[in-house]
Design brief:
The structure holds two protein chains of two kinds. Chain A is an alpha+beta fold. Helix content of chain A is 47%, strand content 9%. A four-stranded antiparallel beta sheet of chain A has the order 2-1-3-4. The N and C termini of chain A lie far apart (90 Å). Classes of the chains: A alpha+beta, B mainly alpha.
């Protein structure tokens, strides 16, 4: 049985059987190696691995947010392989502390960021991230403003009562 | 325990029902006093979400993504996890009233 290896430029992963390698969801640009290859090659260039990408559209270059140049230009996925910021943790905090409706809208948009990213809709994921940010920060500031207004009213009432 | 210095929940003032965030300030107060049991009574959702939120921030800060890290990230903060949270928040909201 052929054993395959792949690398992210720093760490080498493997050995994998072909079935296991399929489950790793590597990209066309991920460097792979197995016994027959003289050197590491992008997985997309290896005919034996074409089964990995039969359902994968050709590479899509994301331009709006170029990743910072790193020493390992291995993955072609934007955002360094992880989805854009989903604002999930912030949304939960907003839900619990200041503004429940906007926090919940934030959580729903966080779900969209994740689902779109893993459906390879990077543009849509980026837009959902922006939406999540908008609602979460709106909820945060609204909560803060309402809190401050409330505080002012309380102080005002206390001063009036004293006189 | 009740302090006039903290705003009351507008949802509770209007409907008399508790929202998922009600009691979170009191829960934090108890947590700062290391009284986890009382904090749990005030707002159980807040207490259980704290470790999760801290983990989330740690994951947000990690810049180097190994496949293993990405797998964990997807399991803990992926779309399924988010829907579970959504159901938890809404379920907590209904059940506490």
């Amino acid at each position: 049985m052929q054993k395959y290896y792949y690398t992210n430029g720093v760490t080498t992963f493997g050995p994998f059987t072909l079935e296991e390698l399929i489950k790793e969801h590597i990209s066309r640009d991920t460097k792979v190696w197995f016994q027959e290859l003289s050197e590491w090659q992008p997985a997309g260039n290896v005919p034996e691995l074409s089964v990995l990408f039969k359902d994968t559209p050709p590479p899509y270059t994301y331009t709006a947010n170029p990743p910072a140049s790193t020493t390992e230009p291995v993955t072609a996925e934007p955002f360094n392989g992880a989805p854009p910021k989903s604002w999930l943790t912030e949304s939960i905090l907003v839900t619990l502390f200041c503004c429940l409706p906007f926090g919940i809208v934030g959580i729903v948009h966080a779900a969209k960021v994740e689902s779109r990213f893993y459906a390879r809709d990077y543009d849509g994921a980026f837009k959902a991230s922006e939406e999540a940010k908008k609602w979460t920060t709106l909820g945060f500031w609204l909560g803060l403003v309402v809190g401050i207004i409330y505080l002012v009213v309380v102080i005002f009432a206390a001063v009036v009562n004293r006189h | 325990m009740d302090s006039v210095w903290f705003p009351k929940c507008p949802f509770r003032a209007l409907t008399g029902l508790k929202c998922p965030g009600c009691g979170s300030q009191r829960a934090i107060h108890y947590l700062l006093n290391l009284d986890i049991q009382s904090a749990f009574k005030e707002n159980a959702l807040l207490v259980i979400s704290i470790p999760y939120i801290i983990t989330g921030f740690v994951f947000d800060c990690l810049r180097h993504h190994t496949p293993r890290l990405l797998k964990w990230r997807k399991a803990l903060f992926g779309v399924k996890a988010i829907w579970i949270i959504f159901v938890l928040v809404v379920g907590f909201w209904i059940l506490r009233n």
